[in-house]
């Protein structure tokens, strides 16, 4: 049995959750650190209808594995588990497998526990130069790099990142590497100051008046984000939507037709790009860490992570 943070109608800390039994193609990983994501919080509000162990951002050590090259190695793991045989999986798009499970989100226990089992093909070894705390950011940072794979951004583009939460701050740092004209917009000066200190242009939303952006990236985690994006994107511009919330959104779709705006959904991304960026110190992560709690204080950690002032709240599991 193991310690875990479990959601089943309500959030609970338990000490008697079964240790996962890895399948023939899976590794058993001892989780060392895990990060609380806004998606985890939204699940406790009804998003995806998930029940079980929460959590999908983690770093851990492989304790059992058929591939001896991974035994004892520190790893992070991609969160989508495809069937391996469908069209999407054959095209290396298991993120879109119709029968996929998703770590801590859909039909697969997550990482807010002492152990997790994941397919070896999902694992990425972590260089020694990356700390456990930094490694927790690999999954969300990869999601930020997905934007660059989906949308060609050049130095001539005028780009706006909406939202000063964890993902917004990561996305802004990633977009800044393109040399584009970037403005990050948020509601909290203390959060935006993290970007100010590394030379990224920021604006508090009440004072934000600029319009006609080529590309707008919604990382607000709020139903209002897409509406703001529609207000500031130029005709024939692009909106990249990162927000996922339990509450259903109502959008005036006519604006997309009238102004010929492209709407691009964006989810998980390339782990190698994220690992390379952390290793080369392109992205500054430590200012984004609000606090680290032992797993025994997981419920308190969730309360902290739910506050508007918090950024990344982590659990130290082992």
Globally, the shape reads globular
**Rg, alpha carbons:** 19 Å
Helix content, binned percent:
10-25%
Q: Please indicate the count of domains.
A: 2
Element-by-element helix/strand order: EEEHEEEEHEEEHHEHEHEEHEHEHEHE
CATH superfamily of the largest domain: Medium-chain alcohol dehydrogenases, catalytic domain
Spans of at least 5 consecutive residues whose pLDDT stays below 50 are none
Structure description:
With about 325 residues, this protein is of the alpha/beta class. The protein folds into 2 domains: about 1-135 and about 285-315, Quinone Oxidoreductase, Chain A, domain 1 (Alpha-Beta Complex), CATH 3.90.180; about 140-265, NAD(P)-binding Rossmann-like Domain (Rossmann fold, 3-Layer(aba) Sandwich), CATH 3.40.50. Helices cover about 25% and strands about 30% of the residues. It is built from 10 helices and 18 strands. The strands form 4 sheets. Strands 3, 5, 6, 9, 10, 17 and 18 form a 7-stranded mixed beta sheet that branches. The chain has a 6-stranded parallel beta sheet with strand order 13-12-11-14-15-16, sandwiched between helices. A 3-stranded antiparallel beta sheet has the order 2-1-4, with no helix packed on it. Helix 8 links the parallel strand 15 (about 235-240) and strand 16. It starts with a strand and ends with a strand. The mean pLDDT is about 95.
């Amino acid at each position: 049995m193991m310690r875990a943070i479990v959601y089943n109608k309500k959030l609970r800390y338990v000490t008697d959750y079964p240790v996962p039994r890895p399948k023939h193609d899976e590794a058993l990983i001892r989780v060392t650190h895990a990060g609380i994501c806004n998606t985890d919080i939204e699940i406790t509000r009804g998003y995806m209808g998930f029940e079980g162990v929460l959590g999908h951002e983690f770093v851990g050590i492989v304790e059992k594995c058929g591939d001896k090259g991974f035994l004892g190695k520190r790893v992070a793991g991609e969160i989508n588990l495809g069937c391996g045989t469908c069209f999407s999986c054959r095209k290396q798009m298991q993120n879109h497998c119709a029968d996929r499970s998703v770590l801590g989100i859909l039909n697969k226990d997550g990482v807010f526990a002492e152990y997790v089992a994941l397919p070896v093909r999902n694992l990425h070894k972590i260089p020694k130069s990356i700390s456990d705390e930094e490694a927790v950011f690999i999954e969300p940072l990869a999601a930020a790099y997905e934007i660059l794979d989906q949308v060609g951004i050049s130095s001539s583009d005028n780009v706006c990142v909406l939202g000063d939460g964890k993902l917004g701050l990561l996305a802004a740092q990633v977009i800044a590497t393109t040399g584009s004209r970037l403005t990050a917009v948020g509601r909290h000066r203390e959060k935006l100051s993290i970007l100010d200190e590394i030379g990224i242009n920021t604006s508090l939303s009440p004072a934000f008046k600029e319009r006609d952006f080529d590309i707008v990236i919604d990382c607000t985690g709020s139903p209002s984000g897409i509406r703001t994006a529609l207000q500031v994107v130029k005709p024939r511009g692009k909106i990249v939507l990162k927000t996922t919330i339990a509450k259903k959104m109502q959008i005036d779709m006519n604006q997309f037709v009238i102004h010929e705006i492209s709407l691009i959904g964006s989810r998980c991304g390339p782990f190698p790009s994220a690992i390379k960026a952390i290793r080369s110190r392109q992205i500054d992560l430590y200012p984004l860490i609000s606090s680290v709690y032992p797993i025994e204080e997981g419920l308190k950690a969730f309360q902290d992570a739910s506050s508007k002032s918090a950024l990344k709240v982590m659990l130290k599991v082992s």
